[in-house]
Amino acid sequence: MQNVHLTPGEAPPPDYYRSNLVEVCRYVLHTYPQALHEQDTHWLQSLLACTQPAQRLLARLVMRKGPIFRLDKLSYAEVGNVRSASKELARAGLAMINPAVPADRLLEVLVKAEIADITHSSGRKQELMLAVLSRKPDELIRKQVERRVTWLQLTGAQTLARAQLLYFGRTSRDLSAFVMRDLGLTRYESYDVHADRAPFSDRRCVDEYLRLMALRDTARGLDTQPQNASWLQCAALSGRHAFARHRAIERSRNKLLNALGQWGERADRPAYALECYTHSRRHPARERMVRILARCEQPQAAEQVLEAIREAPLCAQEAVFAERFGKRNGGFQPPVTVAPLSDPNMRMTPGAIEAEGLAYFAGQGAWGVHLENALPLGLAGLAYWSALFAPAAGAFSNPMQNAPNDLYWEDFVDARADSIAECTRALEANPHSLLDTWRAKHGIACALVSWPLLSREALVKVIEAVPSTALAAFVREIIGDLTNTRTGFPDLFVVHQDGAYEFVEVKGPNDSLQPQQRAWFARLRRLGMPARVLKLKA
User: Fold this and answer.
1) Which of 324, 350, 383 is a domain's end point?
2) Residue 515, exposed/middle/buried by CB under 10 A (0-12, 13-18, 19+)?
3) What is the biggest distance separating any 2 CA atoms in the chain, rounded to whole angstroms?
4) What are the residue ranges of helices labelled H in 8-51?
5) In terms of Cα–Cα distance, which of 186, 252, 276 is closest to 3?
6) Do 378 and 454 meet the contact criterion of CB atoms below 8 Å apart?
7) Both 361 and 481 in a single domain?
8) Is the model more confident about 240 or about 378?
9) pTM of the model
C-alpha cells in the first residue's frame, strides 16, 4: 500500500484504516502460511472476503479498547450503516452479537443511569454494579441488558495477536504504527525486510511465545489469585528445553520466571522464589537468589551463587553486586565532590537538582549538558547506525521499525560481528563520522537516538573532548550490552576550560547511588573515563 499523508485534526481518507488492516492480513497470509493454524487462515481469509463497510468497521474496532462494544455508541462515517456491517461480521464468524459474556464486563459498558434502571436504586456506578451482581445470575443480567442495548464482541483475538506478532515482530505494536508514520510524526529508515529472517516464522515458536505472553499477563494477578502460583511455575518451565535456542522465546521465559520470583518474595515464599530464579538466565535472578539465601541464613549456598557471578557475570550490575554484597560501604566508591545548594529550601522538582549541578560547573567556567542515558545511547546509535539497520536473522519484519527486533537480545552483537567491528574501527579513525551520521539521518526514528535531546553542539563537544580511542571503546561497551546500559548513566557531561571532560552524577541531600548507577561508575573506571558524584547539600 502506498503511504497516505495524514493531516493532524483532519479525518483520514475513508479507506485508510481498512487498507492498513488488509495490508497486514494479506502480508501475513502470503508470507507466513506455515506459522498459521487452520482457524487463523480461515479467519483472515473471511475478513478479506467481506465487503468494505464490514472491513472498515473491524479495522476501527481492533484499534479500540474492547472486547465488548455497544452498537449504539459506534458511528463511523466511512462505515455507514454500522448495524448492517456488524451483522455481516457476525455471519462471517468475525464477531458475535449479544454473546454470553461475563455480566461484570457487560455492566461496564453501561452508564450509571442504565444500571440504576435495572437495580431500581441509586448510588455510585460501582456500588450499583456490585448490588446487581450479588443479587442476580449472569444470564438474567444479560437478558435485562439486552432489552436496552445491543453489544458486539470480536472473535479471533488469538489470530489478531498472531498476525500482529508476525507482521510487527512484537505484540506491543499495532495498527497505530501506520498512523504515526502517515501523520509525518515518525520517519523510518530504509532497510530490507526478509521473511526468511523474521524472528517468528514457525507455528510452534509463535504458539510458545504467545503462551508465555499470556502467562505473564496471568502472573500480574497473583497478588489477588495466589492459588495460580504453582501451575504458573510449572507452565513457565514447560517447553524450556524444546525452545532453548530460540532467543526471543527464552528471553520471554526468563522475564516470566523473574516476575514469578519477585512475587514469591513479596508473598514471603522464599522457596518458591528461589526455584523460579534458579531457572532464569536473566539479571537480577542470581542477585535475588543471594539475597534470599542470606536472609534464610544459608551463607554457604549464597557464597556459591556469588562465586558463580564473580566467575561469569551476566552484566556489570551483577559484577558490582558481587563485589559489594556483605561489605558495608565496600567495593569501588566513585569520587565525590560536596557543594552547597544555592537555595537550601528549593523544591526538588524534576530536573531541578541537575540544573543546580550545571549552574555549579558554569560558575567554574565549564560547559555542561544534562543528557543522562540519552548521551551513551545516542552515541552508540550514531556510531553503529549501519550495523543497526543491516540485514540479519530476526532483525526486520515490517518497514516501520525504529530498530531491529533483536536489538536488546543477548547475542545482538554476535549476529553482526563484522559490521560492528567495522563501525568501531571507522569511529576510532574518524570521530567526526558521528556528525556525518547526525546530519544524514537526523529525524529518522532510531530506538537509541533521541533527536530532541542530542544536539549538534553536544555532539561536537563530545568529539572534541573525548579521545577517539576512548570514545570508540565507550560506544563498543554500550552496544555490547544494551540491555544493561540503557539506564543509570551519570546526569551531566561536563567540559572544563582546560578541555578536560568528565561525567557527573548529581545527587541531592537525601539521594544515594543506585546499583545501576554504581555499575556505570565501575564501567567508566575500567574504560579510564573520568566520572564523579556531585553531592549537593543544604
Assistant:
1) 324
2) middle
3) 81
4) 16-31, 38-49
5) 186
6) yes
7) yes
8) 378
9) 0.78
